[in-house]
């Protein structure tokens, strides 16, 4: 698939995600105001954050497909990493604040909400999230970038969160008819805390991953081993050996520089081009935008 088609798919997915976020943000904001539910408020805040971040990214998408230049040797790939660091940092801060607020509510004795209305509302939201997730997944089958993956993950969490909240408040309705009715006021803040703890892992992980990309650290050992294995496989028919492997991964772009040595000091461009093309074609099956260079390892 060429870059133009990838860009169109990514823009379509981001547009659909933007429209979905706006719709859910509006209805959840209204419902959170009416019911004073912390759980719905948390859903709404996540949608607002996602909405604020999607808008600027729509302008960034075309830049990510521009070729690298001498002025910008990494293109705009690092801007994507910076964008994701900001997005997940905001989500992390909001999540921590909501946990603090919910704990305070529990310490203050909890608060009662219209559990039946919230259960029905969240189930409707759950169905809407499922429909949108399936639509986005359909388009992402042809192409899925790091950012598209992040959007799909966010909608997947919305699905799980909405269903969980719906079931929790349905349980509260049942408990009201039992001796455990006293527990009802605590369900809303407890559900909000459970949701927050469930959601907090991904922002922390993605912040570290994208910070590594920003400072141009090498990717994890699993990726390095995979690239080395593919390179060694392509070189097995020649006399060249790998002396050093330099890999930089930032945003959706990956640069691979393979420093080689030849026992007879003879290196031909034809052979190098063949090996490079084989390695690049194989790596393209696993990496989005890959650049491969084979460099003779010259003595100091």
UniProtKB/TrEMBL annotation:
Keywords: Membrane, Transmembrane, Transmembrane helix, Transport. Residues 16-215 form the Cation efflux protein transmembrane domain. One of its GO terms (biological process) is intracellular zinc ion homeostasis. Its main location: membrane. It is a multi-pass membrane protein. One of its GO terms (molecular function) is ferrous iron transmembrane transporter activity. SUPFAM superfamilies: Cation efflux protein transmembrane domain-like. Coiled coil: none annotated. The chain crosses the membrane at residues 12-34, 40-61, 82-100, 112-136, 157-175, 181-200. It comes from the Bacteria. It is found in: Membrane. One of its GO terms (cellular component) is plasma membrane. Belongs to the cation diffusion facilitator (CDF) transporter (TC 2.A.4) family. NCBIfam families: CDF. PANTHER family: MITOCHONDRIAL METAL TRANSPORTER 1-RELATED. This is Cation diffusion facilitator family transporter. The lineage of its organism: Bacteria, Bacillati, Bacillota, Clostridia, Lachnospirales.
């Amino acid at each position: 698939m060429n870059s133009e088609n990838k860009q169109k798919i990514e823009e379509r997915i981001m547009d659909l995600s933007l429209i979905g976020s706006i719709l859910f943000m509006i209805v959840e904001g209204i419902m959170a105001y009416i019911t004073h539910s912390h759980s719905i408020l948390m859903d709404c805040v996540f949608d607002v954050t996602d909405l604020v971040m999607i808008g600027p990214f729509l302008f960034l998408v075309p830049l990510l497909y521009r070729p690298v230049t001498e002025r910008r040797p990494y293109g705009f790939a690092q801007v994507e990493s910076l964008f994701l660091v900001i997005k997940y940092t905001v989500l992390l801060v909001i999540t921590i604040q909501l946990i603090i607020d919910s704990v305070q509510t529990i310490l203050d004795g909890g608060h009662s909400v219209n559990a039946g209305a919230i259960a029905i509302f969240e189930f409707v939201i759950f169905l809407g999230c499922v429909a949108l997730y399936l639509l986005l997944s359909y388009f992402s089958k042809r192409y899925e970038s790091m950012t598209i993956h992040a959007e799909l993950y966010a909608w997947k969490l919305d699905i799980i969160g909405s269903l969980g909240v719906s079931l929790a408040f349905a349980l509260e309705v049942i408990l009201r008819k039992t001796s455990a009715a006293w527990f009802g006021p605590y369900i809303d803040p407890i559900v909000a805390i459970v949701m927050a703890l469930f959601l907090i892992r991904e922002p922390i992980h993605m912040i570290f991953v994208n910070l590594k990309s920003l400072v141009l650290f090498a990717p994890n050992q699993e990726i390095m081993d995979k690239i080395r294995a593919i390179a060694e496989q392509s070189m097995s028919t020649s006399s060249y050996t790998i002396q050093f492997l330099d890999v930089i991964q930032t945003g959706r772009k990956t640069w691979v520089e393979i420093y080689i040595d030849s026992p007879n000091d003879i290196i031909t461009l034809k052979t190098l081009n063949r090996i490079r093309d084989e390695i690049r074609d194989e790596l393209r099956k696993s990496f989005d935008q890959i650049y491969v260079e084979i460099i003779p390892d010259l003595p100091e």
